Batch of 3 targets.
Target 1
Amino acid sequence: MKHYKVIKTDDFKKDFKKLDNSIQILILKYIKKLENSTDPKAYGKQLSGNLAGEYSFRVSDYRILAIIKDNELKIYAIKIGHRSKVYDIQEIQYNLKK
């Protein structure tokens, strides 16, 4: 079985640093769960509209927005934020480093 690797973008890292320590711990545990999974899509919700092609993963009241690349076995974590604000972004821009 092959497992996925989570790649954290600069935007994700910036948002992550702003979170309380207790939330950071929950998120790191969740990321570890995704990395140990052979099917991370089963844990998330596929988004539509402006965020089509992305997935949302729920961690308490926070959401991780990510792109899953099955052919690379990588999950690009692009954004994290409170559920009331994370989707308000007009357009999320990111660079996927290979």
Target 2
Amino acid sequence: MAETSPCANRPIEPTDTEVELATLRDLKGISERFSALTPLVLGLAVARVGLLAASYASYSRTDDGLLTDGASLIALCLVGVLLAIVAGRRKPLRKRVVNRLMDASIALEALTGAALGGLMVADLHSPVLQIALSALCMLGASLSMFYWLRRARGTNTVVAAAFVFTALAASEVMLGAVSLLPDGIDTVLAAALVLVQYPLRLLARKKVIPRDISGTARPGDFFSFSASALERNRFLIATAVGIGALSIVIGFLRGYPAGEPIPFTPVTRLTYALLVIGVCACVIVALLRGGDRAATVGIFIAMELLAGAALILYAAFPDSLHIGAVASTTLNALMVGFTWYISLAFMSAGARDPYYYSSAGWIVWLGCRALTRVSLIALAPAQLSEALVLTVVGGVLLVSTQVVLVQFLDVSARAARADQERHAGNCEACAAEARASALERLMGLDSAAAVETPEQVMHRRAAAMGAQFLLSEREVEVLELYAQGYTQKRVADELGISQGTAHAHVKRIYAKTDLHSRQELIDYLEEFTV
């Protein structure tokens, strides 16, 4: 019998050229798939750049002390008003309200940023006026960021991470270019750049909705953690608690040792920006390659390590605090991206208006940081020793790490216990375990908040019909309102378009669906969509 070659059944390995071609095809596919995110990425990045140039000195130093964190507390009080309004509503905000709020937010950020830049150019110093303008600028920038996050609601893990971390990296590139200009000029230019959000909004409407961009769901992320929505909610709550605890550490580190801002040198300023961009790239690549926890536990570990590195560098180089400030400012920037990401996860898990989750996340993150920083400034007259401050910060970092660890372990323990009870047939124990806690209700993750309103039902059905008949995003919006009984004039007013444009959209909907009256559209939505 003839011997068979040991290599006969082995698959033929691709050549180097074939591997390179396959890689290029994959990259082309990824770029085409995520190109729809470009307006959102640029919009979110520009909103952040306008804020940092006006209130954070373009990161030529860690920030502007009270002008940053004092103003943050005032701005967060105003954001809290929005949170209270949204929390008291079961219905999501109407599109017309959202659009007008965004128009006002862009204008507010641009005008206040330009005013702050004008004060710097004219060399006028009025702390009260500057803090007031900075607070209003933060309010406008925050609401603008919330809008761009809102447009990406309901998306999947990979798309969400690609969106927020690409925007974070892009903002660092823009900010680096702006920071090369003289003080005041950079702020005015950034304020002018903020106005680019107006055309970006129009461009975003012509692109694919982010939730319709394909992406792989990961079993261990915030968007699809485990098979249980209950476990995902508790995982999200644990993360929110961890963000608050780590934000306290950031508040100490950014103003070490007495709360004053730390100036950068050109080298350390560049190092910080490259670190942020590098970490963002690593997170995105890891998720594209299938890493389950890159944007969850992985980034938490990275932020804890950065906090530890900042402590070590501050202690090792007491006369060159800008070296330690590289780590603390990188940590601060990553926390911004992580909070954006978690806000999107909450929007996917909860049923309240997206502004509820983005506002709450912003208040937890910036509120904890600002309160700590302002407290550190208030204690400056006591002339605390640097050794004592380092020890306190180290202790707070240790506690925050333990808080995150205990929260995650509690999620795992609860999940295991619920699984055992389920297998044992103990339905009463399962029901008690599944009962929403006060914290879940506060964070909008309880089942009571998930009752769909008629408007939400129609939104879901219109989206399903739009996918079936390949309707554009604008046509889906027109269909949703038209099927609710809106006249074409009211549809036009609600969406901020002309009545003729609304009429043209209705005609195209009729043509694409082969339905010829409002009632036929309603009957189809009720009978053939779920």
Target 3
Amino acid sequence: MQSSDETVEDVSRGERVTARGDLSRRRTLVGIESHGDQLLRVVDESGCRSGRVSSFIGLHVMVLDDADGKEYACSIRGILRSLARDSRNVVVTGDRVLFRQEGDVSQAVIERVEPRRGILSRGSQGREHVLVANIDQVLIVGTAADPDFKPQLIDRYLVSAERRGIQPIICINKIDLVDPRSLLVHLRAYGRAGYTVVLTCTRDGRGIDQLRGLLANRQTAVSGQSGVGKSSLLNCVDNELGLRTADVSDWTRKGTHTTRRARLVPLTFGGWVCDTPGIRQFELWDISIEEVDGYYVEFRPFISYCRYQDCTHTHEDGCGVKDAVAQTLISESRYNSYLRLREDDIWTWKNPARGHVKQ
């Protein structure tokens, strides 16, 4: 039986592209190079354009040309599917790609996917689901009400952002529906941990100018629970976007999906945002149970004071984190969030070497 490397080599030796029209497209794969955990196709770049994936459905991809901003409908070269570790993530929104124009002026084929950085992903049915790539910050949108405020979901995003080295910003929308003092426990906890928190209302414009400043000239994923008003927020921040919006269901009090797939859009004042579909749960990916405490940033100064090196901060004596909670140096709400996260996910932690395993 062939190894995966031998299979890739066979495919790379055998793939050729036939030509039509004026373009000479009879090109042979030059080789394969490794970049971290990604296998990349080495191609002849003459005649290629560079761009960013703005959206995709299956293997049908829309790419924005870096040079002129024109959008191309692209297919994916077959060899790229062979190189991908997971067929679900061959190409994702935000990917930097090299593509070659085909006969039709708006048709093209993706020849290479560049190395990814700034990935926001979650677990789904035992596999990684990459939501967006090449971002430098994530706007985590929750609501004060309608649907209910869910700090537990926000904390999962924060852990994932810390793991990936992405700057998180917390946005609490629909602040007009409650007395803001009812959220003080959580707002103080996030503020003490060093996170930026923005309170917004699309009806009266509260917080919109601050949010606009945070998004300018940055690459931002906008994510959160269904029905929190992500698209409405973005329309207020930049009224040229014209994104579709809808209300929360009167029957379920849950959000309805107006954003069906992630879409990358440029902001008129500089920068890009990726409006992602709303979710109802966020399963952590590529994080072991032993390291999750390090992604609660306010725990870090106190972990070294734990008596035991493998302290879980749950039941052990001489725990620096528990002592800090008792002294109100760590928010009790955030500590309880950590305990609940451990309990909820204990059977589905992702071990990087072995996949999803029971601990």
